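User: For a benchmark we're assembling, each entry needs the component sequences followed by a predicted structure for the full assembly. Here are entry 17's components. Please fill in the structure.
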Amino acid sequence: MPNLVDALRVDLCAIILAVTDGTPRILTIRPTDARATVADTLPWGPLDPRTDRTLERTLRSWVARQSRLSLGYVEQLYTFDEGRAGEGLRRISVTYLALVQEQAVSQAGAGWRNVYAFFPWEDWREGRPPVIDHAILPALNTWLARLSDCQQAEQERERVEIHFGVNGVPWVPERVLDRYELLYQAGLIPEAGAAPHPAFGQAMALNHRRVVATALSRLRGKIKYRPVVFELLPPRFTLWQLQQVAEALTGMSLHKQNFRRLVEQGGLVASTGAFAYDTGGRPAQLFRFRRRVLRERPAPGVGLPSGVRDS
Amino acid sequence: MPNLVDALRVDLCAIILAVTDGTPRILTIRPTDARATVADTLPWGPLDPRTDRTLERTLRSWVARQSRLSLGYVEQLYTFDEGRAGEGLRRISVTYLALVQEQAVSQAGAGWRNVYAFFPWEDWREGRPPVIDHAILPALNTWLARLSDCQQAEQERERVEIHFGVNGVPWVPERVLDRYELLYQAGLIPEAGAAPHPAFGQAMALNHRRVVATALSRLRGKIKYRPVVFELLPPRFTLWQLQQVAEALTGMSLHKQNFRRLVEQGGLVASTGAFAYDTGGRPAQLFRFRRRVLRERPAPGVGLPSGVRDS
DNA sequence: ACCCTTTATGCTCAACCCTAGTATAAGTGA
DNA sequence: TCACTTATACTAGGGTTGAGCATAAAGGGT
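Assistant: Structure for entry 17:
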């Protein structure tokens, strides 16, 4: 039996998400390597198998070291096999998703980046992004046309339809990862180091863009049955703030009155009695998250996006 | 910087699930170690970082070696930190969930075990399992009573209520893992090697029972928005077979007529024109899964259990 | 004071879906 | 034939959702 404990490293990688002013942002680290055009990375670091206590704790400490952030809500996302790097080192990376309220980061190189800069086709809040019809679908179609195997081409065409909402297929926000992988297989995702493409989004180092896609997929799914949005909000918030966060994550606009009815009748929030006066119009009640809802309802979440836009 | 590539091993672990005659079963391996009362394990094996190509491929080959099964549908489940074993070896295990149709396994030691033998409190198909009120809640209550810190006791009491459906809180099938962890923390889960407890279920080796709990949680959640059940069925099936599989997984009985309407109107199945005559009554149409539903609906799944029982 | 703009919030109607049944169809075996 | 079993059709009532109209309450300008 070969020696299995050599040439193997486990890395921990964090995607830290916040929503400010209706923009979902992730924390990135710009490597201080001044040589080439280095792409941003997510905060990450290796596990020391002898001294580190748990995976999550190690992750937190790497994040603290690289960004001085202390994380609250954290969940494990996915474990990627990175294959063998140059000198034969096998890398496995375990990724985590953290939700925080955006805060200034003083650490050099660390900063917040708009998620939709990496996935321009995912933001439907202003309607179907033109980039889909102008750039993405044409590129996918030429890729399909070049496929020689007819049967496979048909299958891939179906994937395009399903994931990008063509021919009457509805757009499904959660399919972020499927869309990313489709574009990747079609050779349309610029590699790290390449110039950012206005239609296909900014690059990141390593496979970090895939990690972000995984996170967004998971989050868009989870928001519907778990009250995770509240991790991104201050303790007291207006319903409009809540809605903006939900919209920022799902990339969809929601009907304001119905959203209000949903969260209020759903018992997700309770009024604090206080008001916010800086709304520009009538003052808005300040609400707080009602933890008790967890007892009352099986799957409390904020309304699923039906693609409706506020007038 | 310390040498990080020593004393670390990544294991791959599979939970392989099938449903036969309304019983959900998992594939277990009985170690051939004849010494002590060895508990069953799931199929697993270490990753060889130098020769193995991908995590999933390695997993498949371990399963094939230990049970001669060849897996179809496989998804990654969770990555566990197993801590340091005796001699300082740090173990990480990446677990996968596979869905198959049950088939005979000839390999020595391999066999199928009823999932609910490990989690007797999770099967509500015959109504609320008596074991909850007779054994589990009393044991949890004495545990709560012993907690000294009053505030923590209140929090833990709330967890019990939420997860076990006390005081009008609805029973939520997906919370399998939460319930397992609660019982574990309360010291009520027998360790591997202990005699199986009729109320708290059979033991498994290592943390494998936690892995199974994780899998069941995931599956019960996923069944509602993804057509995963069909992986467990033959290509042609009756609606009653389909319902039995759904019930076996969720642990809930469903209203037959409504279930039929749901899957039929939902476009999940299509009639094949053939009939099954061995039903004991009127012959039943044979259906097949309608793959095209993936195009039409955002989240096609089989109806959520509302705890209704067929008369 | 009055009007206009802005945002928050209340309310309604119709379409749709789900729940819990009742009723009927089509086999089997006595 | 009847009794029994399972499959399948249909329906009445309640709840939820989608979409829009209407009103409330602030600020600013005149």
